[in-house]
Amino acid sequence: MYVQTTFALALAALQAVSTAAVHQRDVLEDIQKQAIAALNKAAGSENAPSTCNIFNAHVRKDWSVYPITIHRVFDTCALTFTTRATMAAAERKSYTKAVNCLMSKPSMLDPAMVPGAKTRYDDFVAQHINQTLSIHGTGNFLSWHRYFVWSYETALREECHYQGYQPYWNWFSYQSNPTISPVFDGSDTSMSGDGAFVAHNGSVGGAGAIFLPSGNGGGCIISGPFRNMTVNLGPISPTMAGETKVADKFAWNPRCLKRDLSAYTAEKWLVPNNLLNLTTGPAARNIETFQNELQGRFPQGFLGLHAAGHFMIGGDAGDLFSSPSDPIFFASRLPRPRLVDMAGLASIPGLYRGWNHYAFQQPA
Ligand SMILES: [Cu+2]
């Protein structure tokens, strides 16, 4: 098939590039160029979807650099992509303003059932908490989170007049120092910075199997748009040393948002070799190996890209249940569908059945 042949050639070329060379840019860019070409080709075919295609798909932009992003949303318009679309400062501010707006609106949940949900933002945290045990380590892990992000994006747009789409945080940038990333530099155009320094003995990830040393934070966020944010739910499964579990999973536990940004986690697991393994290497052989590699092999000390994304942020983001308490959660979900889409195009037979007929739709 044309697409597979094209990808085979592109991937062979990509794998021949040294890690050091690809590290300087978006490591999926070469694969993605092929994907966009294939999408254009599909869009011109008689089987192209008429209601959602490369011409009318929503654009989700990268917060900072490495601007090419391609992924899709699960619901109405099935394809979402960006092409050299980096968020301008004003766009970043309008996004964080909308998130703060969601945090200022009252919860729509029944307070008798979820007493800790005080705001509309909390409703999303509560939803994740409620379903945690059936949406992680399971076959619906990726599709559920895709839908979750779409729901949140829709709430920002419809309830808080946000004009844009959910921004994307590229895991594979600023690994050696996330605090200087435009995402985390603490400026007014960031997603807020690190937590204040609080001496503590690291965190434990990988279902308690993997020790992660402390970064330079650990305390409350003190800069950027979310510096005054109140977290109402959790922690339910705290991972940072010194944190105490809340009595009930829906209890009200108002406190500041904490982070402990970690270069250790990013440099160890969010690296090109792991990414290539998932998209073109042995892990892309089938959906089972893909999911296992993405979600980690904890007994072997391999945190995996998903958990590494959580622990690059640390603090509240390390909690399996209440991690959406940190607003970066939603931007942090987007590298995964992007990886799935690339792997689906490149390596995993049947992940997207019948390319010409379904063009990026998931298998039933
Ligand atoms: Cu989750």
Any overview of this molecule?
Residues 136-153 form the Tyrosinase copper-binding domain. The protein is 38% helix and 6% strand. By secondary structure, the chain is mainly alpha-helical. Residues 1-25, 66-83 and 349-364 have low confidence and may be disordered. The structure holds copper (II) ion. Copper (II) ion binds next to helix 5.
What does the average pLDDT come to? 79
Number of helical stretches of at least 4 residues: 13
Kindly provide the radius of gyration, computed on alpha-carbon positions and rounded to a whole number of angstroms. 20 Å
Q: The CATH topology is what?
A: di-copper center containing domain from catechol oxidase
- For the secondary structure, the number of strands is 8
- Which word captures the global form? globular
Helical percentage: 25-40%
Instruction: Give the assembly state of these chains.
Output: single chain
List the uncertain runs.
Answer: 1-25, 66-83, 349-364
Which architecture name does CATH use? Orthogonal Bundle
**Number of domains in the coordinates?**
1
CATH H-level superfamily title: Di-copper center containing domain from catechol oxidase
Please report which band the strand proportion falls in: under 5%, 5-15%, 15-25%, 25-35%, 35-45% or over 45%: 5-15%
Pfam families: Tyrosinase
Signal peptide: 1-20
GO molecular function: metal ion binding; oxidoreductase activity
Domain Tyrosinase copper-binding: 136-153
